[in-house]
Design a protein that fits this description.
By secondary structure, this protein is of the alpha+beta class. Helices cover about 25% and strands about 25% of the residues. It contains 22 helices and 43 strands. The strands form nine sheets. Strands 10, 11, 12, 13, 14, 15, 16, 17, 20, 21 and 22 form an eleven-stranded antiparallel sheet that branches. Strands 1, 2, 3, 4, 5, 6, 7, 8 and 9 form a nine-stranded antiparallel sheet that branches.
């Protein structure tokens, strides 16, 4: 294409406009038409033919009136696009092509060399300007006709060049000499020899399956050029589209265990999505060894997808995301929430705007996804994931038969795929604004007209004569599509037309806002799943095209009520401006955790009357579900063969979002935890021993299992006592050393000591004490104690109670797994091993001990693996109810760190201890040189499991003491953030916020806001020292962070005929500590009045809870209760409620300060039952109390 001709046309339009403005012309239609001509010429210069709307013309005309030129049009963004995608019609294979003139920021014509020319130009300008001023319409019409003729000529020249390029590529692929442009146009070339050569070349070419190449293109992988070249040069048709074959995913081994992968992809035009998202479902992966010897994981996808309606523009690209998950994980979060492994981008079209057909090895890049970065910049500036790639094939649908056969071996297949290369570009990111984005090509911009025969016909004749000796059947057999493929292409074209008609119907349809609130799912018992996920999509009667309206719900969990699933916090989805079409339905697919379909159902979402829509199908709906045909129950029998006790139903509400979200049904989920992994704890019953014959007893401390997360290095001491805690001197205290290569949470010791045989007290018991350095407190702590009896009574198989049973005692020989108790045994009470069942344990933590009875004083004791099933665990360490819930998480969360690794990263270690193993061992020996007779504080058990929002935390307010007023007491609990009860957010404070209460009431702040209050007061408790029996309230889905519970106590005081709440004080309790729930049974002091909003402002700035409150008390901004009022609160991880029994007298007083005795309950008080009026029942009295509580303005939104 001759770029100078476009420059001349631009210069002419500019000259006419300048003269028109200089002469005083101001007709906006004239200026708009001149601007349209100028833009058309500019865009055509760079290969674009955009359709400009009236808004574009008016805007450009306004710019021209103010004196702005079209420099911005010529300079941006086409200059950037030119730099990125090459210059002119670039030959992708050989690099040859027409060099295009770079766009300039000025379209002015160079000044003429002679004065006569200058005079002529000036005269022409004046004449043209006078003519325009005299008759604008006539001159403008003539100028438009000239402009269209010149544009048509340029278009025809461009078509000639494209056809010449195709001919040149065809001759090159066949190995024939090239011909010049003059020979083509004049028809003077000798066609007969060329035709003969072409026929011989095609007929002699081996088949594609033989692996012989037809071209030496570097863009096609070696060994596949024959098949690839046949579909690489096709003229692309958006209606026909292209086909993607997803073959393999080869990924490096990551630190995160994963078993399945999912590929999600769509087409982007620059930074904007241009197609609906398509998904290659989760597929299992398997380990492979690549040809380089590296280990990797491979997913065999073998999935085919079509892309239709994508225009051939350089900005259209494929954006792909790969997500992974671990189906074998016991943690539901790891199974339900896949994580992103990587992403990539692939330009779908070459510089010549043809499909990038071929077999491609596409690298993956680490997340996060950046939609604004260009593909070239991504490949040249970002380091891809090592040994990780996608192997895929792309081709035009018309040439689908020429696609390669599937290679069953991904290791050898990897060698057949090539990686597309990109050169660096000045355009690193796509522009964010619509103004700077390149316009899409619109082939209908210039009216169609017959091509000039004198220019186009010689080239067409040349092509026809060139291929004349080759039969059409031979070409079809070798390169073309089959009849079935042609039929599919015709069907695809018909579908595309139907889609276009349907989209036109949608564009004219009336729209409504739509809200869907999931309420409950009912499933028969034969459908045994942990959770259900609802996938909704809006479907039209003909099913195509897929609509963008849809959602995937949060997991619906099993409820306390049988056969129910639901959402504790609700599941709401809202959509804006949904087109209303008759018979348009919402289809619901219910999936299990593995992505398998469980059931499906649908409802119509719009109401129609006489063919016209008049609203959404609002209201509560019970959608009948159809179970999947292949669904099996846990016994393997099809559910269709079983009588259904409950009909599958999805309960949902359809509503209009502009009227607000309706209240959702309260749902209480069951706490479902995975079973205990087989390797975590092995059940081995106690074996019956032999009578004791005075043998020596060798005690072996072999190791420990699943110690708390806050241990660093561990040391175990052992001593032998009678059941009255009298030491047995024959057995001096033994202790373990330090093994730096031992796992930190399951250390191995293998330390033994022998007790001489003879007369040994049958009640003898070994007491073990486990010590460590707390990683968070950076202090020595007692992890816990354990006990193991040496003998068993022959009758009860438990520890003998006295020496009188010596004759009936049996040796307790063998290997044992005994629990570690979170206590320091009280030496004032008898120690009975079989009576320790109610003693609190260190959850899941155990010791492995061996007792060897032998006549030898030093018998060999080889170590035993735990998997040998020889460690007797019943009844000693049989898991408690709360340990059964924790074992799956403990085994998943304990990393295999060694003692050396943990200690070298320990912040309390001295510098001298880091100089080598010897120095480290000396330091440990010194630090853990402990006298077991000196008491040490117990190590916190808060860190047994990490906090998981899926399970949440639980809180219970159990009692209060020393309330100022006697009356019916209620404890109200809210969370900070947001502390919505106490923050002033009434209507009118924020005009932009439409979530106000509507009547001036404080509105609930929805983020984490879940205010609850006690509802079960103990009528037998004193009114000034009330007890509540509500138990734990569970909070879920709260992220771990700076969070506290605000507890506010009210007493109902009678005023006239009613009751009003009177504040007795408030207090707070931090929820989290060092990545875990701040577990405990706490007695908390009450502060007078209401919590000040200034305190919450300090907390918003990440101020420490305790420090900010202490400063407020010191400054008298906050005052402690004058009556020393307090409350007892239990807080724990929701999986550990069984460890926290109701105990108002055993609450910790650490948070009361120095004067603990001040908070002791004092003063007389009537019982709560005595407060009930004579003519009122207790139930009516309670109802009146809560009616009065609801009059308290901050509580009104929550009652």
């Amino acid at each position: 294409m001759n770029s100078l001709q476009c420059d001349e046309l631009l210069a002419e339009v500019q000259r006419v406009r300048d003269e028109y403005l200089r002469r005083g012309g101001s007709d906006i239609s004239v200026l708009a038409e001149l601007a349209s001509m100028e833009r058309e010429a500019t865009l055509f210069k760079y290969g674009k033919q955009p359709a400009l709307g009236p808004a574009d013309l008016d805007r450009q005309a306004a710019l021209d009136v103010t004196g702005n030129t079209t420099d911005s049009i010529q300079g941006q963004p086409y200059g950037h696009q030119e730099q990125q995608y090459g210059h002119g019609l670039q030959d992708e294979k050989t690099g040859r092509g027409q060099q295009q003139v770079q766009p300039s920021r000025s379209a002015a014509v160079p000044p003429p060399a002679k004065s006569s020319q200058r005079t002529t130009v000036t005269s022409n300008r004046v004449e043209r300007a006078v003519a325009l001023q005299a008759d604008d319409a006539t001159v403008l019409e003539r100028l438009q006709q000239q402009h269209k003729l010149r544009m048509l000529k340029l278009q025809q020249e461009r078509e000639v060049l494209i056809m010449e390029q195709d001919l040149r590529e065809l001759r090159e692929d066949l190995g024939l000499p090239q011909i010049s442009h003059a020979e083509i146009v004049s028809g003077a070339s000798s066609l007969a020899p060329a035709a003969t050569d072409a026929s011989n070349a095609i007929q002699a070419a081996p088949s594609a399956e033989a692996g012989t190449t037809l071209s030496e293109s570097a863009a096609v992988p070696l060994g596949t050029q024959a098949a690839t070249s046949s579909y690489r040069g096709a003229f692309y048709d958006p209606v026909r589209g292209m086909c993607l074959y997803w073959d393999y995913l080869i990924a490096m081994q990551t630190n995160v265990k994963w078993t399945h992968s999912q590929t999600t992809f769509t087409v982007f035009n620059g930074a904007q999505s241009a197609q609906p998202v398509q998904i290659v479902p989760f597929q299992p992966c398997a380990p492979i060894t690549l040809s380089s010897g590296m280990s990797a994981a491979c997913t065999i996808m073998r999935s085919q997808h079509s892309i239709v309606g994508v225009t051939a523009t350089p900005l259209n690209r494929l954006v792909v995301e790969v997500r992974i998950k671990d189906e074998t994980s016991p943690i539901a979060r790891a199974r339900l929430n896949p994580v992103c492994l990587g992403w990539t981008s692939f330009d779908l079209f070459s510089n010549r705007l043809q499909v990038e057909a071929g077999t491609w090895k596409v690298p993956l890049f680490p997340p996060p996804i950046d939609f604004n970065i260009t593909t070239a910049s991504l490949y040249t500036t970002t380091t891809p994931l090592p040994n990780t790639c996608l192997l895929l094939r792309i081709c035009d649908v018309a040439y689908i038969a020429s696609m390669l056969e599937e290679n069953p071996d991904p290791v050898s297949a990897e060698q057949l795929y090539s990686t597309k290369t990109y050169t660096s570009s000045q355009q690193a990111h796509f522009p964010n604004s619509d103004v700077s984005k390149p316009s899409l090509t619109n082939i209908n911009r210039i009216p169609a007209s017959p091509s000039p025969i004198g220019v186009i016909r010689p080239l067409q004749d040349h092509l026809q004569q060139f291929l004349k000796p080759v039969t059409l059947e031979s070409i079809k057999r070798k390169f073309g599509p089959s009849e079935s493929e042609m039929q599919r292409a015709a069907v695809a074209a018909a579908n595309a037309k139907a889609v276009a008609a349907h989209m036109a119907l949608i564009s004219k349809a009336k729209t409504f806002d739509l809200g869907l609130q999931m309420e409950e799912i009912r499933m028969p018992e034969v459908v045994s799943v942990r959770a259900l996920i609802v996938k909704m999509r809006v479907v039209d009667p003909q099913g195509e095209p897929p609509t963008p309206t849809g959602f995937t719900s949060l997991p619906a969990e099993a409820g306390i009520e049988p056969c129910t699933y639901g959402w504790e916090r609700g599941d709401v989805h809202e959509f804006v401006a949904v087109p209303a079409l008759d018979k348009r339905k919402a289809v619901f697919d219910l999936m299990d955790e593995q992505g398998q379909q469980v059931a499906t159902g649908s409802i119509e979402i719009f109401k129609f009357h006489q063919g016209e829509p008049f609203g959404i199908n609002d209201g509560l709906h019970e959608v009948a579900l159809t179970l999947a045909q292949r669904r099996k129950d846990i016994s393997g029998k099809s559910v269709q063969d079983n009588p259904l006790d409950v009909q599958p139903t999805l309960v949902l509400r359809v509503y209009n979002p502009k009227y607000g979200t309706p209240p959702s049904k309260r749902f209480s989920p069951r706490l479902v935890v995975p079973p205990i992994p087989a390797e975590a704890w092995i059940a081995v019953p106690l074996s019956k021993g032999e009578p004791y014959k005075g043998e020596s007893i060798t005690v072996v401390i072999e190791g420990a299992r699943f110690l708390p997360e806050n241990v660093t290095t561990t040391r175990v001491f052992a001593k032998l006592y009678t059941n009255r805690f009298k030491p047995i001197p024959k057995f001096p205290e033994m202790s373990t050393g330090f093994n730096l290569d031992s796992p930190i949470y399951s250390p191995t010791f293998n330390v033994k000591q022998t007790l001489d045989g003879g007369n040994i007290d049958p009640t003898a018991v070994l007491v073990f004490k486990v010590y460590s350095i707390d990683n968070y407190a950076v202090r020595r702590r007692l992890v816990g104690s354990a006990a193991l009896n040496l003998f068993n009574d022959a009758t009860t198989m438990t520890q003998p109670e006295s020496r009188a049973t010596a004759d009936t005692s049996l040796v307790n020989a063998g290997a044992f797994q005994i629990p570690i108790y979170s206590v320091d045994f009280d030496k004032a009470a008898p120690l009975r091993v079989n009576k320790l069942g109610s003693t609190p344990r260190v959850p899941c933590a155990t010791l492995l001990i061996r007792l060897v009875f032998s006549k030898s004083k030093d018998p060999p004791v080889p170590p035993l693996p735990y998997s040998s099933e020889t460690y007797q665990s019943i009844p000693y360490s049989q898991p408690t109810a709360y340990e059964e819930k924790l074992y799956p998480f403990v085994i998943a969360e304990r990393p295999p760190h060694t003692t050396r690794d943990r200690m070298l990263s320990f912040e309390g270690i001295s510098k001298s201890a880091t100089q080598g193993d010897d120095a480290l061992l000396q330091w440990l020996e010194k630090v853990l040189e402990i006298s077991t007779s000196d008491p040490l504080p117990l190590m916190s058990t808060n860190y047994i499991v990490k906090y998981d929002p899926l399970y949440g935390f639980s809180l219970s307010v159990d009692s209060a003491t020393n309330l100022t007023t006697k009356g019916f007491a209620v404890a109200v609990v809210g969370l900070y953030p947001p502390a919505g009860m106490y923050r002033d957010e009434t209507e009118g404070d924020n005009e932009d916020d439409d979530e106000d209460g509507g009547d001036g009431k404080p509105k609930p702040m929805k983020a984490y806001d879940d205010v609850m209050y006690t509802k079960a007061i103990d009528f037998a408790s004193p009114a000034r020292h009330p007890v509540w029996l509500d138990g734990f309230h569970r909070y879920r889905y709260r992220p771990m962070g700076n969070m506290a519970a605000i507890i506010h106590v009210f007493v109902m005081v009678q005023q006239g005929n009613g009751w009003q709440p009177s504040s007795q004080g408030w207090t707070y309790l931090p929820i989290f500590e060092n990545g875990a729930v701040n577990m405990g049974n706490f007695r908390l002091p009450l502060y007078e009045g209401d919590p000040p909003e200034a305190l919450f402002d300090e907390w918003d700035g990440d101020a420490d809870f305790d420090e900010s409150v202490a400063e407020a008390v010191a400054s008298k901004t906050i005052r402690l209760s004058r009556k020393a009022s307090s409350v007892v609160v239990r807080l724990c991880d929701a999986r550990r409620t069984d460890e926290m029994p109701f105990d108002v007298f055993g609450a910790h007083s650490d948070r009361l300060g120095d004067d603990v005795l001040r908070y002791k309950a004092s003063g007389g008080s009537p019982l709560v039952s005595a407060l009930v009026p004579r003519k009122m029942s207790p139930d009516e009295y309670v109802q009146r109390m809560y009616q009065g509580l609801s009059t308290y303005p901050p509580l009104r939104p929550y009652m």
